[in-house]
Amino acid sequence: MKFMMWTASMLAAAIASGAAADPPLAKPNDRSGLYDAKTQTTNDLRRLPVAPGTNVPKTNIFITNARLFDGTGVPVRAVDLLIQGDKLVRVGEPGGEPPEGAEVIDARGRTVMPGLIDLHTHLTYVHAFGLPAPLSEESQAGAAIRGAERLRYYAESGITSVRDVASHGMAPFLLKEEVASGAIPGPRIFAAGQLIVGEGGHGTEYYALSTAPGYAEAAVREASGPDEWRAAVRANFKSGADLIKLASHFNQEEVDAAVDEAHRLGLRVTVDSETIYTRMAVDAGVDSIEHPLPRSAETVTLMAKKGIASVPTFVPYQYINSGGGYNGSTSRRFTISDERMFALGAEMKAAGVKLGVGTDVTLDGHHYLPEVYVQELRNFRRLGYSASQALVAATLTNAEILGMDDRLGTLQPGKLADLIIVDGKPDQDIEDLKKVDLVIVGGRIIVRDGRAILPPRIEEKAPFTSAK
Ligand SMILES: [Zn+2]
């Protein structure tokens, strides 16, 4: 079959009818203007059109006697909820009748709320830093196995989405697919792929493996010059990236090129940087900045003005400080006290910078969950957030920073059924978040009685057996 060629007259007719006009993108990842209202798309940042009903579970769950914290600012109230397929379809007055065939879950005395989001994870990072790292540990194969083991810790902590901001090779994308298909219980994964840094930049000092361009196994990719930064963005895009993660060091031309390339591809950009590098990233128009690292008051003001969010990740720096500080890193030649980073957090909050929640646990830090996640919310409390405001940061604000707030972050009919049942009132006392009973992601129950469960066994009749 030959492909139809556009002739000049066809093109002119198309332009006249408006068909050839490029729909504008309001912001990176906002693909909404491109689709017919009926188009179904993947539930990730790429929004790929998919056939209707693709990978939707046959869920029919009725939750009764729920004490609902829906994340919208509406006061907690008693409701029944109905989940069908991958969506929350009804939030109604309590005492309603469950539909035919529904699994009924009695939430009496417990709180139903949107699933938590962790904006800063590394699902595949090695068990221990320090040279030489065993090469087997750094392979994509080892990375995928580590990631598969770690997912349950996030799930059992009530975390229903993670933004993975650097992992080895293709491992995070394959983990994402297995979770999305329901084969492995875990949170929804939004993956950046390889971290892009300048030669000798942050992250490169911890790896024995090559981080050279094109080396597929590593979690970090070095790039030099604007062309290599663009190429690195495209390489991650090719792997299936939901977003792009950059880290200092870079020069202005390099960060400008990477941000321009990512935004043209419809991908958001987040940056791990400090001081003058944060200023360069802000000037380049990135979407968010990771960590509570030093930056000028002028940069904070610019972040607020340009709508650039912050994911402060106080908790890993409290951990670093508890061990005596950031020592021996060739790319991080400064110290930052707890006092200084909380002062920065307060300054950003006062300036109106949107603050998101991420834990950045590395090595085997997932063993500290859910404590580390709750600790980060305690850190938000320290900035003056109420318990319920901290929960909104962990759910709706995080969904906004991801670019997924049209589908995640609150419990409203039509949104994806990512929710948790907590034995307590976390909107009054965030410590109750350590008592997560049940977790549903995309309509699939993945945690019951606080423990991850294997997905239902698939029973199929083999086509080759003969009748007895
Ligand atoms: Zn990190």
UniProtKB/TrEMBL annotation:
This is Amidohydrolase family protein. It comes from Sphingosinicella rhizophila. Pfam families: Amidohydro_1 (PF01979). Residues 111-445 form the Amidohydrolase-related domain. Keywords: Signal. Transmembrane segments: none annotated. InterPro entries: Amidohydro-rel, Metal-dep_hydrolase_composite, Metal_Hydrolase, Metallo-dep_Hydrolase, OTAase-like. Residues 1-21 form the signal peptide. CDD domains: Met_dep_hydrolase_A. It comes from the Bacteria.
